[in-house]
Sequence to fold (207 residues):
Amino acid sequence: MAEFKLHCFGESGNSYRVALMLQLCGCDWEPVFVPFFKGGTRDPDWRVRFNEMGEAPVLEHGALKLTQSGVILDYLAERTGKFGPHNPEERREILRWILYDNHKFTSYYATLRFQVGLTHQGDPAVHEFLRGRVTAAWKIVDTHLAGADFLVGGRPTIADLSLAGYVYYTEETGLDTRALFPNIVAWSERIKALDGWQAPYNLMPRD
Ligand SMILES: N[C@@H](CCC(=O)N[C@@H](CS)C(=O)NCC(=O)O)C(=O)O
Fold:
């Protein structure tokens, strides 16, 4: 049995950032498929056993169960000594970007992709609203990356892995992110060049 078990599914960028961290760190890990599109995370029993918040990913490490990808990345950085902060200022900077990611950079994009690219549902006016929110949030990251190879400290950290959660998926969203955000594209290529990088659907099983 692998040392780490990651409850996840292929379409989940929130899970991918943790899978990528495990992979880049050379951890002994295995994915445990969560049947999200069949209501897996809404199952009351699953919530009691794995995550009261009803979300993937969940990382199992021995008796420990961790949820929230930012917390999991922080735990793995501490355990492995990789992709973490070198000092208190960097720790705060990493936390700042992870919070921005969870609140804006990922959350609007993931919602837009879910409705337009995966489930083909929702109100076109809502999609347009989400495109506006994605564009504003991604522009801020693109501007930051115009002057930096990585988000914090000039080297890849868990802040980069967090924001990289959704940048390799290609499902339709009605936004040409490759054309709009060239610095994000260049940064995503730098992450892709890291030893051990793998695409989301190669790391995690999908429906
Ligand atoms: N902030 C959370 C977000 C996790 C999340 O939203 N996961 C999605 C799958 S990609 C989920 O399980 N959503 C269930 C729901 O919203 O009901 C994290 O970073 O772990």
Observations:
- The beta strands are 4-8, 29-33, 58-61, 64-67.
- The radius of gyration is 17 Å.
- The chain has a mean pLDDT of 98.
